[in-house]
Amino acid sequence: MPEQDDAEREFDLRWADGAEHREPSARARMLAARWKENPPRPQPFRADPDPSGPRRSSWISTVVVLGGMAAIILLLGYANFRAPY
Questions:
Q1: What pLDDT is stored for residue 30 in this prediction?
Q2: What is the rounded CA–CA span in Å between residue 81 and residue 85?
Q3: Cβ-based neighbours of 4, under 8 Å, separated by 6 or more
């Protein structure tokens, strides 16, 4: 099959872009068929996803991280203090 030159390819793109009827994508057809039988529930704008569990406070995470760092610093300081020179 001979390769199309740029002029022919541009003509094909203009012809395709100028089509009056555009077929929806496969995903759009699938969703339309699914929603016809079972329409989606309305959701607020930027709805949060369903939480998988109780949400922890960011303060708890901060305390755990800082407490762990303090414990490591104290442990290393105690090991240096007890190490023979």
A1: 94
A2: 10
A3: 12
Following DSSP, what letter does each residue of 47-85 receive, concatenated? PPPPPSSPPPPHHHHHHHHHHHHHHHHHHHHHHHHHS--
Q: Taking a C-beta distance cutoff of 8 angstroms, is the pair 32, 24 a contact?
A: yes
Looking at the 3D structure of the chain, how many domains does it have? 1
| Assigned domain for 52 exists | no
Residue type, 35: W
Q: Are 4 and 12 in contact (CB under 8 A)?
A: yes
Q: pTM surpassing 0.85?
A: no
Residue 77: phi and psi, rounded to 5, are: -65, -40
**Distances 59 to 66, 71, 72 between C-alpha atoms, Å:** 10, 18, 20
Instruction: List, run by run, the mean pLDDT of 10-residue segments along the chain (85 residues).
Output: 59 74 87 92 74 71 94 90 70
